[in-house]
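S2.1 Query sequence (Vacuolar protein sorting-associated protein 16 homolog)
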Amino acid sequence: MDCYTANWNPLGDSAFYRKYELYSMDWDLKEELRDCLVAAAPYGGPIALLRNPWRKEKAASVRPVLDIYSASGIPLASLLWKSGPVVSLGWSAEEELLCVQEDGAVLVYGLHGDFRRHFSMGNEVLQNRVLDARIFHTEFGSGVAILTGAHRFTLSANVGDLKLRRMPEVPGLQSAPSCWTTLCQDRVTHILLAVGPDLYLLDHAACSAVTPPGLVPGVSSFLQMAVSFTYRHLALFTDTGYIWMGTASLKEKLCEFNCNIRAPPKQMVWCSRPRSKERAIVVAWERRLMVVGDAPESIQFVLDEDSYLVPELDGVRIFSRSTHEFLHEVPVASEEIFKIASMAPGALLLEAQKEYEKESQKADEYLREIQELGQLTQAVQQCIEAAGHEHQPDMQKSLLRAASFGKCFLDRFPPDSFVRMCQDLRVLNAVRDYHIGIPLTYSQYKQLTIQVLLDRLVLRRLYPLAIQICEYLRLPEVQGVSRILAHWACYKVQQKDVSDEDVARAINQKLGDTPGVSYSDIAARAYGCGRTELAIKLLEYEPRSGEQVPLLLKMKRSKLALSKAIESGDTDLVFTVLLHLKNELNRGDFFMTLRNQPMALSLYRQFCKHQELETLKDLYNQDDNHQELGSFHIRASYAAEERIEGRVAALQTATDAFYKAKNEFAAKATEDQMRLLRLQRRLEDELEGQFLDLSLHDTVTTLILGGHNKRAEQLARDFRIPDKRLWWLKLTALADLEDWEELEKFSKSKKSPIGYLPFVEICMKQHNKYEAKKYASRVGPEHKVKALLLVGDVAQAADVAIEHRNEAELSLVLSHCTGATDGATADKIQRARAQAQKK
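Output structure tokens follow.
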């Protein structure tokens, strides 16, 4: 344990700091870091170096080179810089490299050097050029702040949703500030800058002079400033060698330290641990590294070579040409277990486990001591927590073995924390591997979340490792394996040295019917890469037609899209394609396409019936569909024409079409309708009634109701209305008029072709029993009983039924016998039945 703490450095009485190596860097740097623009992403992210930037002492003919490395120094990309001079580099939260040029253009590159997009910081920046720039991170995303040659600031808080803000002017500012930084407070981004001994805070509305509380007097200039990783704290380095530390709001002073060095530092960053009360600043000069806090002394390291500091959530990464190290505050659990002469429960449990492995009785003594104090649960928890903060797998295993040993003597210790820590450490050790190069700490991993870590593995195209982690952690397939396979497929389609057939087959073999994977998304990526045929092949595997069709339309494969829409049976989808085709093709080609797709043609006709009648007529004409064309003109005669002449003309066109279709019945019926229309117009002119658009029967009925019996009979003769139908019409009309006298004359005019039972029924419907009885006697024998029952003459109906000896009629009369009034009639029927049975 004493050896283990050899690299611990105390800062005051309450905190230790340690620095350990993450990787031995094997990158082949041809220039010193001081001669490069450097950007390193947090959370163990990649490193970007822009070699040979635009320096006066460099040959102008040499093109600069942009190199991207993993944190372990493995090359990821290298490209010649062919654009303008670059002022600053920085990484976004999505691990995209932002390159801010002197003309205000920001070029965005992927992790593998692929160009993504670019945007401009505005015309003012273009005119005045860029003096300095900062890439910063907020809760909204990654932002860019620019200092222009006119000594004005412009910023955007989120490059994903670019909204430029021009900050207020600083009064009397004639030269560039000695230092400046961005602050994010209350969801608003501010600029803090130093001009001589003065500090100014810029927000979107005003420029305010601010003074740090408790600042030592005699300061004539601020040389460097640093904001903590969480934007809560601020540090200022003055020309007197004092470092002021306080809250970012500049309302509270935490501490002040005199480093006795007046030379401006190359870098100054915060080094603090989440939920720790300790605050420390790491300051770097050419060959010296200093850690200062609220203690009177500091920790100092000698730098053998050019180094670069990367602030992290819980410490600072330090890399140079040969090494990559991590400096951080020793966590409380580790300190209590490993510090010299510690009697903490975790320390005793670790010793007990080691003695147990040696088969020494001291293990029992240590264990009893912990149990007597009732601290065994605390000891197990300390060992589990400390294991998470250790970088070396051997020490992780030692602590976890101690925790497992202690758990054996506890009755009810929940195993979740132990199991979860084992899983987390396996994942962390896998991504920390030199070939992966993501040196995450446990605190960073928990802040980043497993989903973001998987996204970063996918960005690095480490698909097998990402899938293994998903399977090991048993993540839901849609969030884990399926999502990663989809990303792999999108990368696969970009491999242009492989044939479309091979790529499509490989993707289908790997993905199959994996839930959560959309072949249409992969096909869209293939189309975006210019591989249209590959996209079509991939869409064959997409089971959802609603996803296939829009992309096929986008690829201008409209006819194939129509076939897919028809196969799906989704009429809305078919209509979508049809409307697209209509706008894309000329009229003739569009109609020819429809002729080859009967279902689409039928649906389009339905659409035209409601929306485009003229197009519907053209369709029928092109297909020589005279039957439908005739029907179209008939509908048009009613819907579009108001004048009688126009309607007759439309009907005449329909007649001609029906004759061409060899439908003589429809042609004759249409001709009759034309005759009827002309007749109705004449009747309206002569009789001043409403006849137009009535049916033939209604026209006859209207004439009868109006007392024009002769005209009604003439109309019936002209249109060959059968006598039975005419008698029914006249009977109904006269009864509605209650013209009983005329009805009686009509019934006697000649023998009724419909019999006289209808007369009885119509009279009873009008509640006129008197008139009904007149006709009941004239009803034929087959309906005599029914007629008599309708007028209520049950006794006579019984006599007729007995006379006819008809069982059905007898039963009908018997069903109408009610109460005492018809008792004699019922008996009479029963006797008749009995006599009939004897015979």
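The chain is about 45% helix and 20% strand. The chain has a mean pLDDT of 85.
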